[in-house]
Amino acid sequence: MNPLHTTEGLLRFGLRDRWYPLCPSGHVRPGELVRIERAGEQLLLWRDAAGAVHVQEDRCPHRAARLSQGVHMGDRVACNYHGVQVDAEGTVVSVPGSPGCALEGRRVLRTFPAEEHAGAIFAWFGLDESAPPAPLEVPEPIAGGEWSQFLCYVEWDAPYLYSLDNLLDPMHGAFLHRNSHTMFAGKREAVFQIRATDKGFVFEKTDQRGVNFDWVELTHGGADWVTLDIPYPDTAGPGGPFTIVAGLAAISENRHAGFFWRCRKVSGWERDSWRFLYRNRLEARHYAVLEQDREMAEAMPADAWDRENLYQHDIALVRMRRLLKAEAAKQVARLTEPATAAPVPVA
After folding, report:
1. Residues of the chain with pLDDT > 90: what percent?
2. Where would I find the Rieske domain in this sequence (predicted)?
3. pLDDT at residue 340 in the model
4. Which of 76, 213, 245, 292 makes a 20 to 30 Å CA pair with 201?
């Protein structure tokens, strides 16, 4: 059975009917064919002559050779095995070895709706491939305007769910990151509460705000986002706290891509000052914090979820896991339900 047609498979590789970030925009340069794996799918990424990005299954519709090993032809891709040419819509436009054959003119290559925002390429993984995608709603801090942001991209050898757990666990900031430049202050004990929102929930400390990693928000819908604020010390220059917007995508069962947009609402000279300080001083410190998270996630055992003893600080993890499991079960039911037979006309 296709693992993406099981509840466990969808949990490992990611729910369908979702937008997922695939890679930084700069990873796909004009004239190149790029092969990646995301969310259980083998993908081909390329740009047409106008620079628009396209995301398709990395599989020639003729004999399943890798299109990523083919030839970029501006508005189409030619398979290197037999020369079959496929356009950005997934339609076979030419079969040089057999002109006029039945394959020409057929739209047979799976093509994923794609968009670019905030320096990253996103694709829609639909449960029904023929249905239009939901709108990609980008969080305000990475939508432009008064916000300035930098994208930090990582690939870790751990299931993406381990990173999602980490993001929904504010308390680890006071321990794992206690020597960092932003999370050294505040209490090392806390009581948390969950506050429901229209598209997810906020998990927050009840007795501390604006001191450490004191709250986190999960937005669950057409795309899954995690947002949090961390106070900046005076050495970070003028402006308010810095906000992290995070998105995750499975590469394989035990590897994932992480997108961490580091954002600050600043304008004018304050914006210039922060961007200069970030590139010359703060970026290395932020990567040092991420490295601590990476080392922890990659060292965790494969059965981490099976042998836990959770307590009050972990209620956000429980809420998130129940939500994902329930939705995965619903999607599997839709994928496996028998097709409705067409009514037989009455004579």
Report:
1. 76
2. 20-123
3. 55
4. 292
| Residue in the block written with tokens 């890798």 | 66
Which of 210-214, 219-223, 253-257 is the least confident region?
210-214
What's the CA gap between 56 and 70, in Å, rounded? Answer: 13
State pTM to two decimals.
0.93
Give the pLDDT band of residue 314 (cuts 50, 70, 90). very high
Both tokens of 38, joined, read 């995301």
Q: Rounded distance, CA 139 to CA 130, Å?
A: 27
The single residue listed with the structure tokens 């949090």 is: 228
What DSSP string runs through 98-143?
STT-TTTT-B-S-EE-EEEETTEEEEEE-SSTTSPPPP----GGGS
| Domains in the chain: ranges and CATH | 13-125 (2.102.10.10), 140-327 (3.90.380.10)
